[in-house]
Amino acid sequence: MASHPIPAGLDPTRAAAIVAGATTIVAAGIVLLLVGSLAAAAGFLAIGIIATGALIAWRLLAAPVAAAPQAVDWEFTRAVAQASSDAVAITDRAGRLVCANDDYEALF
Q1: 3-class secondary structure for 1-57?
Q2: pTM (2 d.p.)
Q3: What's residue 46's pLDDT?
Q4: DSSP code of 89?
């Protein structure tokens, strides 16, 4: 399932708050239309606002965990590439060839 990317310059926490807030307002409106009770819609809106605030607080207070760099096990990757009947080459993000099977080496 594809999703739209967050526009450049928009913080993911802010985007989540905007989506949660808009969803809360729409849901409160639907409750008002279906139930016909302003008190029920206001209560639903209040719960949504509290939940949105909790979401923002959780995102802001959660300490980002830095992932430790891990060494890549190229032996396993090469074994999987060798098992393929096709020529397989794997590059890193810079475009450098980091792993290739024998079929790829024979072809190029």
Answers
A1: CCCCCCCCCCCHHHHHHHHHHHHHHHHHHHHHHHHCCHHHHHHHHHHHHHHHHHHHH
A2: 0.47
A3: 92
A4: E
